[in-house]
Write a structure and sequence with these properties.
The chain has 260 residues and is of the alpha+beta class. 37% of the residues lie in helices and 16% in strands. The chain has one domain. It is built from eleven helices and eleven strands. The longest helix is centred in the N-terminal third of the chain and has 17 residues. The radius of gyration is 18 Å and the shape is globular.
């Protein structure tokens, strides 16, 4: 099996048909098939959160302590601006981080999804001159659950992760704080900062990942299948005003969002 310097063994399908066939193949996935999925348009990208990448701009080593100081300040500033309030009441620290993340702020939460098809769209939506990567993390090797709230404070959550020196990531499904969260079947992964070939997200063993490397030449073909067969496109995944405006900007020809 081919190898990636970041992710170890990867699957390299030769066509879109083979890719979709492999995604539902029991022989490849094996056993209980519940995974959290992430699509990256460049296969060389490691698993780093946006907060990690933002702190790298300071030309200092990014540590767990630095991430925590940064996010505590971010939460305080967002609360002061009134962003903790929602139609359903006051957001918890994790919910506020999720809201900020989906509006472009840099946090340690890494965007994953419960849908392999949604992740595949993100892996193939752009950069047609480079290979993309579809990454699945088996839920047997994650802490946390779907559909359960987490109202603990930021300090409670992340001090316990450090205290117990967890070697695997935690997952959390946010409530529908925005239309995007629901449309993208969002599920976040987070962990203490680590240094691994795969990145700063804690993955205990490379074999806990299932990775599909998708050639740049294949991306357009995959996008056509996702749009025509599954109804997955920019306006379905970004159903808010900002998403509509972006999808109808100068970046796309006028019929780019039409299925026929």
């Amino acid at each position: 099996m081919p190898k990636s310097s970041a992710f170890g063994n990867v699957v390299r399908p030769k066509s879109a048909d083979e890719l979709f066939s492999l995604l539902v193949s029991d022989s490849l996935i094996g056993g209980r098939t519940v995974r959290m999925w992430r699509g990256q348009e460049n296969s060389s990208w490691q698993l780093h959160s946006t907060a990690y990448r933002r702190l790298l701009l300071s030309d200092k080593p990014v540590t767990e302590a630095e991430i925590q100081r940064y996010e505590v300040k971010l939460l305080a500033r967002a609360t002061h601006r009134g962003f903790r309030s929602s139609d359903t009441g006051q957001l918890s620290d994790l919910e506020l981080l999720a809201r900020l993340q989906h509006h472009g702020a840099a946090t340690r939460l890494m965007d994953f999804t419960r849908s392999a098809m949604v992740a595949l769209w993100f892996a193939t939506r752009a950069a047609f001159d480079v290979d993309g990567m579809l990454i699945g993390v088996h839920t047997d090797h994650l802490g946390g659950y779907e559909g359960e709230p987490n109202a603990k404070s930021y300090e409670e959550i992340f001090s316990s992760l450090v205290k117990y020196d967890l070697k695997h990531s935690q997952t959390w499904e946010p409530s529908a704080v925005s239309a995007r969260v629901a449309a993208q079947q969002s599920q976040f992964l987070y962990s203490p900062i680590v240094s691994l070939p795969s990145g700063s997200l804690a993955i205990e063993k490379p074999e806990h990942l299932l990775c599909f490397e998708i050639s740049g030449e294949m991306k357009g073909e995959v996008q056509k299948v996702l749009t025509s067969l599954f109804g997955i496109h920019h306006t379905s995944l970004f159903p808010d005003l900002d998403g509509f405006g972006y999808a109808n900007s100068f970046r796309f020809e006028q019929y780019a969002n039409s299925r026929w």
